């Protein structure tokens, strides 16, 4: 297997950037073709199920979405394999074909790709869909490129080279100076969250835990028995990848979510970390005030992201981010998404 | 006062289109200037209050947001007044200066403008902000133009001339054929809703009524005592104007909201209606199965919007939309936003 030392990051980054743009063009062509009547309207649903992914391939069979997804994944995989034949490739398709539920990404140079993130958005032609391409070394995402063709937005980052919107605007966008985290965070923060596909209406289901957490974050400060967070806004886009990208931009202060897989988050994490953001676990520890704040595991399925921050007169950027993490942990419930061997 | 007969709609439409693009350019310049350090970061909050609007002007004083808002409104008003001096002009500024809470738009030719919709988004530089310009005759929005400069999206419509994205793509986007409403709607639908600014944590507050409605729409079909709607996705963008625009595009099947004012919705309603959508009231009538489905009043503050639909083998487009309205009404609570003399 190739050694990490052999990898020329600059070369890989340039390749990934072009690849995301080319793949984004395929997505762009595909939705435009649908508008011209080429392709049925097929609102294929991933029904509520613990086993979402394995069910998906069947449900998608024959649908336009499925064709687009498979075409773009095949294109990206082919391009990577011919240019970097020794690298690993991890995608949703590979996973759903029966890989175990182990962590999928090891120490070797690995590509992790979601050819079409924002499934439901794409199906309904809501612009928040994208292709997401990450490259990892020793399990860490060091390159990420996200292309959202409908909105003409490309987010990219390579470790040590900054994070960028459309290769010209450095992220976060507000950086003269980068604003510190609000002093009463989560008050003043834009909070991004997703309803997801697990809609079981059972006591203490993930749906109920999520909604309880959302309401805590949203309610007035005096509300919810002291848990009211009075966030500035609550947003739900339907794309984990773009949630992370907008955290990197500084648009979203906080993103909290469970249930994603590696390909949903790897590129976004690379971009957010390079922009100066913090990503850790969604699930609150026993003592949120004192627990060590660990760096996220890409395959953990539980994510809490904080935007890049600046120093304030009274605390460093990292201190402000960690304070925000603790305040979120005090307001959210544990989510029940497991990795069997985690 | 000018008579409706004197109005040349084609001339007004061309003028409104150019005006929205010019005003959008001002917004685009303003956020870019902030990125370059010109302007403080000022997350001015409209605190929770029944009387949100009158409080706003003070809270905004001196902020970058306030300057941008006022500059763009002054520009738009000046342009309209010099070209069409006999027309009325209604904007948030005029209203907050002490106009009564009467319906603001009468029978005469009237412009209704929101120079910057998506306040919180703009403040945090999340791309979902826009300028919104409507022209009304006899109280009905007959022209609407929305420009969202960060995303390069212009939505426009003039009665009888179709609704358009960027003047080139007719709305809804999927139109060969236009999909009928899903047979089990709201299942299969993308449901757009907003958390809003009223975050009071009191029994039966608007926050609680909204959340109860959101959860009904989201939960599995068997859940919530039969009210589970299992929508395909739940989205919250933080812009009523863009919620309506994405309904016109066909991206959102259902938008349900209370609390907006005329300038938040007038242009969006013009575009959605011209695209073939239905807009009625958010609050369910006594008998949702049989009540007449009235056309929306622009100033009603309560909105339920359904996307343009096609006929199915078993029902007309309108029948499918009305069926969807009734199914939403069965799942949502009354919201408590009043118009004192309504």
TrEMBL record, chains A, B:
Binding site for Mg(2+): 92, 114, 116-117, 264
Cofactor (UniProt): Mg(2+)
Pathway where this protein functions: Polyol metabolism; myo-inositol biosynthesis; myo-inositol from D-glucose 6-phosphate: step 2/2
Catalytic activity line of the entry: a myo-inositol phosphate + H2O = myo-inositol + phosphate
PROSITE patterns noted in UniProt: IMP_1 (PS00629), IMP_2 (PS00630)
GO molecular function ontology, one term from the record: metal ion binding
Keyword Acetylation in annotation: no
Catalytic class of the enzyme: hydrolase
Name this polypeptide is given: Inositol-1-monophosphatase
Native source organism of the sequence: Recurvomyces mirabilis
């Amino acid at each position: 297997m190739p050694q990490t030392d052999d990898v020329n990051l600059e070369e890989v980054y340039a390749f990934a950037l072009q690849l995301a743009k080319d793949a984004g063009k395929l997505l762009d062509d595909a939705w435009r073709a649908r508008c011209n009547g080429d392709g049925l309207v097929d609102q294929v649903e991933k029904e509520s199920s613990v086993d979402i992914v394995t069910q998906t391939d069947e449900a998608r069979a024959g649908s336009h979405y499925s064709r687009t997804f498979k075409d773009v994944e095949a294109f990206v995989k082919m391009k990577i394999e011919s240019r970097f034949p020794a690298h690993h490739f991890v995608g949703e398709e590979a996973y759903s074909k029966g890989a175990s539920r182990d962590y999928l990404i090891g120490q070797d140079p690995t590509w992790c790709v979601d050819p079409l993130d924002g499934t439901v958005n794409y199906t309904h032609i809501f612009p928040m869909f994208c292709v997401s391409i990450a490259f990892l070394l020793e399990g860490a995402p060091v390159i990420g490129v996200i292309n959202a063709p409908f909105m003409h937005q490309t987010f990219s980052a390579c470790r040590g080279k900054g994070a960028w919107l459309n290769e010209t605007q450095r992220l976060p966008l507000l950086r003269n100076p980068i604003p510190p985290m609000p002093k009463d965070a989560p008050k003043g923060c834009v909070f991004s969250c997703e309803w997801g596909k697990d809609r079981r209406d059972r006591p203490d289901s993930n749906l109920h835990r999520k909604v309880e957490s959302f309401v805590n974050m949203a309610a007035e400060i005096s509300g919810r028995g002291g848990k009211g967070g009075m966030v500035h806004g609550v947003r739900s886009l339907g794309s984990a990848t773009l949630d992370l990208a907008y955290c990197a931009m500084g648009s979203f202060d906080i993103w909290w979510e469970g249930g994603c897989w590696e390909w949903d988050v790897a590129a976004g994490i690379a971009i957010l970390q390079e922009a100066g953001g913090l990503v850790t676990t969604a699930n609150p520890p026993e003592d949120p005030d004192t627990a060590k704040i660990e760096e996220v595991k890409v395959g953990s399925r539980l994510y809490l992201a904080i935007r890049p921050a600046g120093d304030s007169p009274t605390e460093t950027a990292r201190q402000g981010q960690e304070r925000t993490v603790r305040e979120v942990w005090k307001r959210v419930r544990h989510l029940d998404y497991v990795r069997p061997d985690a």
